[in-house]
Specification:
The chain is 60% helix and 8% strand. With 227 residues, it is of the alpha+beta class. Strand 1, helix 1 and strand 2 form a beta-alpha-beta unit.
Amino acid sequence: MTTVEILGAPFSNYVRSALMALEEKGVPYTVTPSRAHAPEVNAIHPLGKIPCLKHGDFTLFESAAIATYIDRAFEGPALFPAEPQAAARCMQWVSLLNSSLVPAFQAFAMCHFFPMTADGEPCPDTIAASLPKTRDHLQLLGRVLGESGYFVGGSFTYADIAALPMLDYLKDLPETGTIIAEIPALGAYLAKHSARKSFEATKPPAMAELMATTKAMAREMMQKRVA
């Protein structure tokens, strides 16, 4: 059978969500390292975003759509509940995560990973401006996850997969790491699910290596702006 191919940068939280979905289902796959807007990505995604999926002649974009395909095309543990209300609840959280919560988290994380400053270091004012919304969203997740440690009932679903990669980054950044440590339910959630095989198998490069890579990309983008 044709192997699933994922196109994207390994450090992207959305790419990692797609890879975690494949790991949870036990589906063999390959990763083609690709940046957003690379020719091979533009050929699939109309806006040049990652991840993209190729499976034989079939192509697909958007992480939630990719997870849906993986869940329905392959045997293995269900990523989306079958029961109608639980399925709707799962998609409710996936939608909120991908449309509001994760983008806010990304905006904060970008201050560290892609500082876009003259000296290449994070701007304290930019961090301070983005931190209140980030804190509010993390506290919201702490309240939601406090009862069962899952987004939907007592089961691991794609809603958890959509949240975990970004939370994994935030716990290692100084300001958000402190906030997460102050929210016991969120810290317990991360500790519990970081032991999953799918989480371990898809971990991005170490933080120091990742920071060096993304800051180099930021310098490259700034040079292009000047040019």
